[in-house]
Amino acid sequence: MAISDWPAGERPRERLLAQGAGALSDAELLAIFLRTGVKGKSAVELARDLLGHFGGLNRLFAATEKECRGFLGLGQAKYAQLQAVIEMARRALKEEVHQGDALSSPAAVRDYLRLRLAALPHEVFAALFLDAQNRVLAIEELFRGTLTQASVYPREVVKRALSHNAAGVIFAHNHPSGVAEPSQADRWLTDQLKAALGLVEVRVLDHFVVAGAETVSFAERGLL
After folding, report:
1. pLDDT confidence of 1, banded at 50, 70, 90?
2. Cβ of 137: how many Cβ atoms within 10 Å?
3. Nearest CA-CA partner of 203 in 215, 216, 218
4. Read out DSSP for 122-154?
5. Could you tell me the pTM of the whole model?
């Protein structure tokens, strides 16, 4: 049955307008983006198939054009539209992070880092450099690694902090394994970075580990 034949109160678009986007499931939100289904499947059924095939929204967002083209109902045009939506979301969150005190909007910082790092197939180590009022001066990807690790050099991190005249820094890296729990190596590295930056009076305010939909904060865990 086509979605247009559903009762009005059950159609995703009508429900979104009446109840807000937060009331919809991932499949329903994706169905609104897709707009139409394929022969024998409504847009919601197609959306469920897509999420099941890719393993969720994060994996779908990270899929290549070739991977998307191989799925009926998600061609080149839809892939381009999806990438545009994702990039607009990243930029909107980046704007929010850059406005005001980064520590007063931790949800925006988490959301931005999750959208930027969660779906990457390799490990990336990034930093948000802050001024004395905790306003973001710059966001940089500092190191990139393999599936399991990225080599991080404290001396280079100190150089980047000094180049921005930063008073504080928030670190973030992803775990492609999908497990956000900080490793012993993550803790050791954070201690090393904190000690090195302390010599030039730059504070380490937090370190986030991102994996899938989960983000773990060192500050909240009492690991700083």
Report:
1. very low
2. 18
3. 218
4. S-EEEEEEE-TT--EEEEEEEEE--SS-----H
5. 0.68
